[in-house]
Amino acid sequence: MLWVKAFHIVFVASWFAGLFYLPRIFVNLAQVSPQSIAERDRLLLMARKLFRFMTLLAIPALALGVWLWLGYGIGRGQGWMHAKLCVVFLALGYHHGCGVILRKFERGLNTRSHVWYRWFNEVSVLIMVVAVILVVVKPF
Ligand code: HEM
Q1: Which site among 15, 19, 88, 115 is 20 to 30 Å from 25 CA-CA?
Q2: Candidate from 4, 10, 84, 129 with most ligand 1 atoms within 8 A of CB, to mutate
Q3: What would the pLDDT profile of 29-77 be if each residue is shown by its tens digit?
Q4: pTM
Q5: How many domains does the chain fold into?
Q6: Domain containing 128: what range?
């Protein structure tokens, strides 16, 4: 069980590295002047690769979590686990939202400012903090 938990934490941390960094690329993309086509294309290429990679990392992160929960029965029927699953759905929604934003940038349809993306970036941090507190402290 400890090997499963160890790799769960490794993949969760890797997935969230992407959820922390991709919005940072959006901040830069929102600041690129329309004339800087080369810079825009370079940032878009980075964002596409990162989104693909973090999607691949999310799969084992979640699968190993489900293995701990349903396979080993950890947290089954407990409040902290139910709350954590709600936070996980928020993380998946945030991940999906990053994909929608990326496609908007690719089509030149972004209307939001870099300031908006700086606040958007903080949401992934908040999700990580709440999930870790729920699973380590188990407050209820
Ligand atoms: C479907 C999604 C997930 C499920 C079912 C799940 C389930 C679990 C379970 C059952 C444990 C073992 C808890 C224990 O031994 O006390 C665990 C550990 C952990 N999970 Fe998840 N998890 C999921 C996603 C996540 C996410 C998204 C994060 C962080 C953002 C996360 C962070 C952690 C951490 C840090 C631990 C280690 C806690 C400890 O050793 O005390 N998990 N997870």
Answers
A1: 88
A2: 84
A3: 999 998 999 999 999 999 999 999 999 999 999 999 999 999 999 999 9
A4: 0.93
A5: 1
A6: 2-137
